[in-house]
Amino acid sequence: MFTGIVHHLGRVKESRPFPGQPLSAGRIMVIETEFKNLVPGESISVNGVCLTATNRSVEHLDVEISPETLDKSELGQATAGSVVNLERALKFGDSIGGHWVTGHVDTLGEVTSVETLGGFTKMSFGRITPEMLRWLIPKGSVAVNGVSLTVNEVTPLGFSVMLIPHTLEKTNLKALAKLSPVNLEFDWMVKTVLRDLASRVDWIRESNV
Description:
Blueprint: E1 8-17, E2 27-32, E3 43-46, E4 49-56, E5 60-65, H1 67-72, E6 83-88, E7 107-117, E8 120-126, H2 130-133, E9 141-144, E10 147-155, E11 158-163, H3 165-170, E12 181-186, H4 188-207
Antiparallel strand pairs: 1-2, 1-6, 2-5, 3-4, 3-6, 4-5, 7-8, 7-12, 8-11, 9-10, 9-12, 10-11
C-alpha cells in the first residue's frame, strides 16, 4: 500500500527481456535510485505500479515486469533514460499525506490537454471507459503515474486536475504533454462502495421477484 507521495525520481538504466524471451514476455528493468536500504522482496511503486525489488546494488534497483503489467501500464513504453516516480511501501506509523494507493493500475489513460494558469497547470486526461468515469468524484482522489492528486472536474470524456509547482518539480508529471500515456488508479474506496451498493441493489431486485 502507498500514499501517492513520490519519494524521488528515478531513471531507467536498462529495460531488457528475460534471457531467451521476447520483450512482450516480460522485462527486467534496472532503475537508478536514491534508496539505500532496500531489500529483495520489498514492494516499490514505479510510476504508480506496485513492483517487487528483486535485486539491489549500490545505486540501482532491479524489478521484474510481467506481460500483464506491460499491457496495462505505460511501463511497456519505458526505455533507458525514462524518468519514473518512485515510492516505497507504507509502514505502520507512517504519515498518509496523499490517499490509499494500491499500486494496481486500473487503466492506461492519455493526456488530452495541458494549460498554464498563472503558476499552476491544469491537466486533463481521457481514454477512460464510462464505467471507470463512475469512480471519479469532483474533489475526490486519483493517482496519476503514482502521484496522489485531487480531481478538479469530471466530464463525460474524462477529468482534470490542478497541479501546483511543487508537484511538478518533484514528479515526472512536468514532462507530460498532449497524448502522453499515463497510469491511472482510481480511489479503491469509491470502487468498493459502488460495488457494494450494486450488490445490494441486485439483492433487492432479486428479493422482489
